[in-house]
Amino acid sequence: MKAPNSQWWRGGVIYQIYPRSYQDSNGDGIGDLPGITRRLDHIARLGADGIWLSPFFKSPMKDFGYDITDYNDVDPMFGTLADFKALVNRAHELGLKVMVDQVYSHTSDQHPWFVESRKSRDNAKADWYVWADPLHDGNPPNNWLSIFGGSAWQWDTGRKQYYLHNFLTSQPDLNFHQPQVQDAVLAAVKFWLEFGVDGYRLDVVNFYFHDRQLRSNPARGAPDGSDPAVPATNPYGWQWHRFDKSQPENLVFLQRLRALLDEYPDTTMVGEIGDDDGLARVAEYTGGGDKLHMAYCFDLLGEPHSAPYLHGVFTRFDRVVGSGWPCWAITNHDIPRVATRWGGANPPAGLLKLAAALQFSLRGSACIYQGDELGLPEAQIAFEDLQDPYGIAMWPEFKGRDGCRTPFPWDSGAPDLGFGGAAKNARPWLPVSESHRALAVDRQDADDGSLLNTYRRLLAWRKGVPALLHGTMELLPVHEQVLAFVRRHGEQRVLCAFNLSDRDADFALPAGISVSALLDGSGVGGAQPSGATVHFTPWGVLFAALA
Predict the structure, then answer these.
(1) Which of 91, 106, 214, 542 could form a disulfide with 96 if both were Cys (CB 3.0 to 4.6 A apart)?
(2) CA–CA separation, 501 vs 211, rounded Å?
(3) Where are the beta strands (DSSP E) in 127-231?
(4) What is d(CA 233, CA 149) in angstroms, rounded to the nearest whole number?
């Protein structure tokens, strides 16, 4: 029987927290759950509806928590189950939902399941992971590649077989074709639901199943570097990933997963999708109301952000996704920060305000990554300070993900920017970035015109505009500089228009579109209608009611 669901997530705003880097409460140089609890007021004041916590579960931390050894417990570096319960309780007191990041496609090679699986070919968990015999020449069974570079197959001398790892060799892939694996995963899901969480972010949700026949992927040729999920330096982009992920069996499992969540009130799931055709998977995984509630792919997580490019993305989104529900992100823990990606070395303040206004205007939900609200640029990390194995392996052409994971700047006057919580603090796990000092929370809190206060105004104002939360979205004709669309809900029609350039622009309204009044209170501006034309200053934004 389905529990009631307020659908708070539909049009909601979710704030992603990377626990290692948010707030250190005990001075060991690593952020933790009590630190997050201490800072939840910041998120509530921002106006978010919920939080997404990157993994805090027991792990050897080869991939910083995305390699789990116990799905049902907290790693001691982050705290205890009691600390997590306190976090959930405080979040709920503040009106924030709590979503946890779950990694089900793979585990750590130190997980008890894998330890048992690799002992023999006939133990109880022998087929819980993806094992395969070598070819007659000793090579792996096919050409599948790891996202972190090289073959996706690792030789195990004990079983004299290869095991599949789509990521690090220390992250063996679970075999979802085995029903017991599915049942074990669902038990882990249920554990946290019973604990009081409100939903899940599902890591690499399209990687759960592989092709049973282990067919090789077809060649794609040299990548052009346009895929934000895979740098051009990575051979992974040379294949069409037809058989190593996004298999049809995944949909059946997601239906089982959705049925479980539907037993609990007001729960939701958002899935991360990295695929050759991300929008098609978003449609497939969120359509029909019986699988994921929402999903995101990487279309807004690259460098392109011109008006024509975005018009093309949203045109295809409208054609492909249909009734599916996206969750739009412009930065996350795996991608260089948008301030640098879109704005370069000196990102214009107007561009960052526009980016926020655009993100919160799209049909779908929105995900903020910690620091988006401050306009943090990508931190520059010296090689000797790198922690990310992805960056270490592909340096210097690709510098990895550490640049978006540095400690959060709370206090501009503190040597560690307020990240540490004790009198004598250990060195933070990643260096604090001096480029973030002037952007710290205390500075922006005191500046009414800061990006932080713009976020607060935007999100508060947005809650009173039903068309932006629930409405349809109709794109207006493509323009060299201006992206424009209409959001409609009931009788309310709102024109949303953005000058994505550093030059003045004039946008001619098409026939049938007539501005009746500007919508005040958003905290952004720079546009003025005059008859059938709207004039924009650089990075100008228009929100207007239509006649």
Answers:
(1) 91
(2) 45
(3) 131-132, 153-156, 161-164, 199-202
(4) 9
Q: State the DSSP string of 255-267.
A: HHHHHHHTTSTT-
* Spatial contact of 272 and 201, defined as CB atoms under 8 Å apart: yes
| Residue range 61-76: mean pLDDT, rounded | 98
Please give the sequence-ordered ranges of beta strands (E in DSSP) within 418-526, or none if there are none: 472-475, 482-489, 492-499, 505-508, 515-518
In this structure, which long-range contacts are made by residues 25-30, counting pairs with CB atoms below 8 Å and at least 24 apart in sequence? 25/421, 25/422, 26/421, 26/422, 27/420, 27/421, 27/422, 27/423, 27/424, 27/425, 27/426, 28/77, 28/426, 29/420, 29/425, 29/426, 29/427, 29/428, 29/429, 30/77, 30/78, 30/428, 30/429
Report the C-alpha gap between 207 and 66 in whole angstroms.
Answer: 14
Q: Could you tell me which of 100, 89, 75 has the C-alpha nearest to residue 40?
A: 89
355 C-beta neighbours (distance < 10 Å), count: 25
Active-site residue list: 203, 263
Tens digits of residue pLDDT in 501-547: 999 999 999 999 999 999 999 999 999 999 999 999 999 999 999 99
Residue type at 54 in one-letter notation:
S
234: exposed, middle or buried (Cβ count in 10 Å: 0-12, 13-18, 19+) = buried
Distance CA 269, CA 100 (A): 10
Paired strand residues for 482? 499
Residue type, 110: Q
Q: Which whole-number Å values give the CA distances from 302 to 25, 224, 227, 350, in the listed order?
A: 34, 13, 7, 19
Please give the domain boundaries of the chain with CATH numbers for all domains.
13-107+179-461 (3.20.20.80), 472-546 (2.60.40.1180)
Q: How much is the pTM?
A: 0.97
Least Cα distance to 254 among 284, 217, 278, 231 occurs for 284
φ/ψ of 165, rounded to 5, equals: -145, 105
Q: Is 248 left (phi over 0), alpha (psi -120 to 50) or beta?
A: alpha
Contact 159, 121 (CB under 8 A): yes
